[in-house]
């Protein structure tokens, strides 16, 4: 999937989306692979998040980010700054010094929204070589069945946008733990899965070996090959053989990325109560193109309007923030306007710390419209204007879900992998495990920036992500999670 305007043409398309100009070769509307194969959207197949999640809205308590003790050497509440990659005394975004904030490095050049960190070349594939598993590529073996016709793409066509405003830019440092498998053969993999589920018992290790080492696009082809070869639905077969967290993880891995995000949003708002943390995690961290595709998928698959559902399930300033997010209209220009950053910092100060009460609409306007690099510069300017970091000011001026949402946007501007590393940590910290959050982040980031998330996790918590997953999970569920994170 391409990410328009940030920089336009600057990122290769997300795996599983049609290259520009080839939309006609993908399945027509109505043939999306998942209307029936997953747990009912409001069903109980997915465990509820534990109530003991830290702080309002699932984030550490006000008074500085993160909670005291959350990061080694963290500044006390109110001290600036307090987020990984942000050394004290240098302003946000300055290169870390030798003794600064325990040396949490910021990625060399943050990939806003992810995507493989390579220069996109004509044809939309990194490195210019069109992989064999994409339509139009050569099949690896002459004897292999053509899998080009297997439906592995969303039926909704990408939104038409103007790609001409900025040149392509090199982005470094974003890398997933799962790469497309070389010498991929969808029929062979389908046969392995069939044998693993045939007869008495299930060979879960065979399933783990196949699923964890294939990209999402390749999994879609396996699913289509399975139905072609055996006349059976792979997802239904897997559901009948698996249960609990292992089932949830396998089903998530077989959902196309956009569908999984749309499904997660629908599940978060279905029935009594709303899982606000899920709405924040998805809507406040995705790119414009991703959000627009999610909105279209939500409508086509569930027959519902995402914005209307958000309005009916949320209220107040939190509702306004999420409605702003689901427009998918954030500026995605890579260039930073430092004068604008200074002006925005002054506006934010006058809307919060510099007055009695808070002008919430000013915070919403700036944080919902400015690009992530622009916001990073604004945070740096704010620390000079207010002598306080913007994250702690948001904690002082807001509370609850809107505070969590605004903080998420700022954290993604400063260090996106650190945000997801922290979410993973709190999904496993303390008694019980928030398995839905653990599964969702590991799966959705596995082909984008999970390598960087693992690095930040180790620096922030002095233990590896794999170690914490191994101590909090068990059985085949643990094996598959560890295989995905690369342990």
Automatic annotation (TrEMBL):
Residues 1-18, 26-38 have a biased composition (Pro residues). Residues 88-101 have a biased composition (Gly residues). Residues 1-49, 82-140 are annotated as: Disordered. Keywords: Annexin, Calcium, Calcium/phospholipid-binding, Repeat. Calcium/phospholipid-binding protein which promotes membrane fusion and is involved in exocytosis. This is Annexin. One of its GO terms (biological process) is negative regulation of gene expression. GO terms for cellular component: chromaffin granule membrane; endoplasmic reticulum membrane; exocytic vesicle; nucleus; plasma membrane. Gene3D superfamilies: Annexin. Pfam families: Annexin (PF00191). A pair of annexin repeats may form one binding site for calcium and phospholipid. It comes from the Eukaryota. The keyword Protein biosynthesis does not apply. Coiled coil: none annotated. Belongs to the annexin family. One of its GO terms (molecular function) is integrin binding. The keyword Calcium applies.
């Amino acid at each position: 999937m391409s990410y328009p305007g940030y920089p336009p043409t600057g990122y290769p398309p997300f795996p599983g989306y049609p290259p520009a100009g080839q939309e006609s070769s993908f399945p027509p509307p109505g043939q999306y692979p998942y209307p029936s194969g997953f747990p009912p959207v409001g069903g109980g197949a997915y465990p509820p998040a534990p109530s003991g999640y830290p702080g309002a809205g699932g984030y550490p308590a006000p008074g500085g980010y993160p909670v005291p003790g959350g990061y080694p050497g963290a500044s006390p509440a109110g001290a600036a700054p307090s987020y990984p990659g942000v050394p004290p005394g240098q302003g946000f975004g300055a290169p870390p010094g030798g003794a600064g904030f325990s040396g949490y490095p910021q990625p060399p050049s943050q990939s806003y929204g992810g995507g493989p960190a390579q220069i996109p070349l004509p044809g939309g594939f990194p490195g210019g070589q069109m992989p064999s598993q994409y339509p139009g590529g050569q099949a690896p073996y002459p004897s292999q069945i053509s899998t080009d016709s297997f439906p592995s793409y969303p039926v909704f066509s990408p939104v038409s946008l103007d790609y001409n405003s900025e040149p392509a830019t090199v982005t470094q440092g974003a890398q997933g733990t799962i790469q497309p498998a070389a010498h991929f053969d969808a029929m062979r993999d389908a046969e392995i899965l069939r044998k693993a589920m045939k007869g008495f018992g299930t060979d879960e290790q065979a399933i783990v070996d196949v699923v964890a080492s294939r990209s999402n696009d390749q999994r879609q082809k396996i699913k289509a090959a399975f139905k072609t070869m055996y006349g059976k639905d792979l997802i239904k077969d897997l559901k009948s053989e698996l249960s609990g967290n292992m089932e949830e993880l396998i089903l998530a891995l077989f959902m196309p990325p956009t569908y999984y995000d749309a499904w997660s949003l629908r599940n978060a708002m279905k029935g009594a109560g709303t899982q606000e943390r899920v709405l924040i995690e998805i809507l406040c961290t995705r790119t414009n193109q991703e959000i627009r595709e999610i909105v279209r998928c939500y409508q086509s698959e569930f027959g519902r309007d995402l914005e209307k559902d958000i309005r009916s399930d949320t209220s107040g300033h939190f509702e306004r923030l999420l409605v702003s997010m689901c427009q998918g209209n954030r500026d995605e220009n890579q260039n930073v306007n430092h004068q604008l950053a200074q002006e925005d910092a002054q506006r934010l100060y006058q809307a919060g710390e510099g007055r009695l009460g808070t002008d919430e609409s000013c915070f919403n306007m700036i944080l919902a419209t400015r690009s992530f690099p622009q916001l990073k510069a604004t945070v740096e300017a704010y620390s000079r204007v207010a002598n306080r970091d913007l994250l702690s000011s948001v904690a002082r001026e807001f509370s609850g879900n809107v505070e969590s949402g605004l903080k998420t946007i700022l954290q993604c501007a400063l260090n996106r992998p650190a945000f997801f590393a922290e979410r993973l940590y709190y999904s496993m910290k303390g008694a019980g495990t928030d398995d839905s959050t653990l599964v969702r982040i590991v799966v959705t980031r596995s082909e984008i920036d999970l390598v960087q998330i693992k690095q930040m996790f180790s620096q922030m918590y002095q233990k590896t992500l794999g170690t914490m997953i191994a101590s909090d999970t068990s059985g085949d569920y643990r094996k598959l999670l560890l295989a995905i994170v690369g342990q």
